[in-house]
């Protein structure tokens, strides 16, 4: 349920994907409210597809949005979004929060592929994404962040991405950008003046026996193996279009089973 409190809006969306026993995936739980709306779209093969639609502006200052997704054993789920999410300043004071909690059971597969998050001037947003995977789970997770709309300075954006496989952390990454962020975020060691940054986390059981090779992909992107059956792609670019192209090319370069 969505609640407007003095500090902003609280909203929760929940997805559960389950093997239907007939070669497909059912969605016994598909709940959303307020600014977050979930819509089932046409399935492909055994995979269920869900679109996250922004029903209102936001997140604004003081808002707290949460998305929870669970893929049960043997199910396959792909989640995207209908448009970019724009973090905006609001009348309520304080930081906005956007939390994503994902859980994939053995032999389950999740593709989490939202559109870009845009940090508009004057906004203040903290994003946390936590993923829990069983040993034989599969994952493709994409995050893309754009600092400011065309011709404007960015707001403050802090993000943390954590991925655990069989209870073991394989990735715990943080980035803070914009006003008030630690110095150096725009320097050569981090964004080097670019305004779009993204990452892909790809988890496939076969990577345990044959880890990916660390590679630089053109200008602004790299692939590195993680401590487990996983790989991380990181990219920076001058704009969202170029960033998406780099991430798509990197994903296509990874070996498939």
UniProtKB/TrEMBL annotation:
It is found in: Cytoplasm. One of its GO terms (cellular component) is cytoplasm. Coiled coil: none annotated. The keyword Cytoplasm applies. Keywords: Chaperone, Cytoplasm, Nickel insertion. One of its GO terms (molecular function) is nickel cation binding. Required for maturation of urease via the functional incorporation of the urease nickel metallocenter. Belongs to the UreD family. UreD, UreF and UreG form a complex that acts as a GTP-hydrolysis-dependent molecular chaperone, activating the urease apoprotein by helping to assemble the nickel containing metallocenter of UreC. The UreE protein probably delivers the nickel. This is Urease accessory protein UreD. It comes from Streptomyces luteogriseus. The lineage of its organism: Bacteria, Bacillati, Actinomycetota, Actinomycetes, Kitasatosporales. The gene is ureD.
């Amino acid at each position: 349920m969505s609640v407007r409190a003095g500090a902003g809006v609280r909203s929760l969306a929940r997805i559960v994907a389950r093997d239907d026993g007939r070669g497909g995936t059912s969605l016994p739980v598909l709940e959303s409210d307020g600014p977050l709306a979930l819509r089932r779209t046409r399935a492909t093969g055994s995979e269920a597809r869900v679109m996250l639609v922004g029903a209102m502006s936001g997140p604004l200052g003081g808002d707290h949005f949460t998305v929870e997704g669970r893929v049960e054993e043997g199910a396959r789920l792909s989640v995207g979004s209908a448009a970019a999410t724009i973090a905006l300043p609001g009348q309520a004071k304080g930081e906005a929060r956007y939390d994503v909690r994902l859980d994939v059971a053995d032999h389950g597969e999740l593709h989490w592929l939202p559109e870009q998050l845009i940090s508009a001037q004057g906004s203040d947003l903290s994003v946390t994404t936590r993923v829990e995977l069983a040993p034989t789970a599969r994952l493709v997770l994409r995050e893309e962040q754009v600092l400011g709309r065309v011709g404007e300075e960015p707001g403050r954006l802090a993000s943390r991405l954590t991925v655990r496989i069989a209870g073991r952390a394989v990735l715990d990454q943080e980035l803070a950008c914009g006003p008030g962020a630690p110095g150096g975020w725009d320097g050569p060691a981090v964004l080097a003046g670019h305004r779009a940054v993204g990452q892909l986390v790809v988890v496939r059981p076969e990577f345990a026996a044959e880890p990916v090779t660390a590679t630089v992909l053109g200008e602004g992107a790299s692939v590195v193996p993680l401590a487990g059956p996983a790989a991380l792609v990181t990219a920076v670019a001058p704009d969202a279009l170029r960033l998406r192209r780099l991430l798509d090319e990197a994903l296509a370069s990874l070996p498939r089973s």
